[in-house]
Amino acid sequence: MENLEKIQTAARIIRENPGKGMAFTGAGISVESGIPPFRGADGLWSKVDPSFIEIDTFRRAPEECWSKIRELFYDHWGQAKPNAAHIRLAEMLNRGLLAGIVTQNIDCLHQRAGAPEEKISEFHGTLDSLICMKCSAVYGPDHSLLEQNLPSCPKCGGVLKPDFVFFGEGIPEKAFHKAFYLAERCAWCLIIGTSGEVMPACEVPRTAHRHGAKIIEINPAPTTFTSSITDVFLQGKATEMMEALAAESALS
Ligand code: NAD
Predict the structure, then answer these.
(1) Ligand 1 atom closest to 164 (CA)
(2) Are 28 and 197 in contact (CB under 8 A)?
(3) 105 in ligand 1 pocket by Cβ < 6 Å?
(4) pLDDT number for residue 101
(5) pLDDT in tens, 26-40
(6) 243 and 150, same domain (yes or no)
(7) Is the domain of 116 the same as that of 135?
(8) So what's the pLDDT on residue 1?
(9) Is the CB of 108 under 6 A from ligand 1?
(10) How far apart are alpha carbons 131 and 136 in whole angstroms?
């Protein structure tokens, strides 16, 4: 099937099941916003050793870890803006086509594109808040705390950590339940820009598939999902495919 025909098939699935869809997004949706993925030839881990976001390393040497975290995640990623794919997805949510978004990303670009907070499951947490390692107080996007070499809790003096999931940590309970609640009930699942190699996140679209959902996938390259659960594979960049899908789904 040519891409146009596939886009029409995907749009028909969406139109026939309004409000019964979910999206599952990964690093690839933010590539065109200037944020690199972690894996692959141009991925972050080909240039930087990821140990600074391992929880045991962070506990042992928080100040050293913070200097890399600040530079990579807050200074570089902080400038990123949502792209057309984030914007189209937010429109799908706001027009009632999508029931929710489950994202593995920590960059808050879905919210910045206009997607309501309560409709998003941030499966791996977020860069937008900091959590105290001692008293669990959470601080929102007031980043004056980031100016300290070792950000510390104004209440108890404990070390603050970005509220995303470090290697060695569990998935936030609320986001986990929200994700599988959506997956078990949706009629279609739109996967965008993820290799599907991160556990347990990759189980979210697989659960949707097991519960009978049609799987539409957008990625420039085939993934672990493509030959196993995907019904309609839209091969291409997130922005191009989402613009085409939006046009065919009468979203424009
Ligand atoms: P990944 O690095 O494993 O895979 C990225 C995928 O994006 C690949 O399949 C690649 O082919 C695809 N891709 C590349 N360019 C694309 C484009 N223009 N449009 C659509 N797809 C494109 O990423 P992952 O599967 O998300 O897993 C890595 C983990 O790292 C995730 O859990 C995520 O939390 C985290 N991460 C987050 C961000 C972010 O917040 N923006 C960035 C990097 C990594």
Answers:
(1) 34
(2) no
(3) yes
(4) 98
(5) 999 999 999 988 887
(6) no
(7) no
(8) 57
(9) no
(10) 6
Residue 10 Cβ < 6 Å to ligand 1: no
Which residue among 194, 197, 226, 235 has the greatest number of ligand 1 atoms within 8 angstroms of its CB, and so is best to mutate? Answer: 194
Most confident of 47-51, 140-144, 217-221: 217-221
**d(CA 220, ligand 1 centre) in Å:** 11
Residues 149 and 132 in one domain: yes
For ligand 1, say whether the CB of 42 is within 6 Å of any of its atoms. Answer: no
C-alpha Rg value of the chain to the nearest Å: 18
What is the CA(100)–ligand 1 centre distance, in A? Answer: 19
pLDDT score of 252:
47
Expressed as residue numbers, the domain containing 71 is 36-78+127-164
250 pLDDT above the threshold of 80: no
Catalytic residues: 124
Most informative mutation of 219, 226, 237, 241 for ligand 1 (most atoms within 8 A of CB):
219
User: What is the position in ligand 1's atom list of the atom closest to the CA of 193?
Assistant: 21
Return d(Cα 206, Cα 22) in angstroms, integer. 13
- Given a cut of 80, whether residue 77 has pLDDT beyond it is yes
- What is this structure's pTM? 0.96
Inform me whether the pLDDT recorded for 218 exceeds 50: yes
* Domain co-membership, 135 together with 218: no
Is the minimum distance from the CB of 110 to ligand 1 under 6 angstroms? no
Tokens of 116: 């309501």
> Among residues 19, 197, 191, which one has the least CA distance to residue 100?
19
Calculate the alpha carbon distances from 249 to 55, 88, 113, 219, 246 in Å. 43, 11, 19, 19, 5
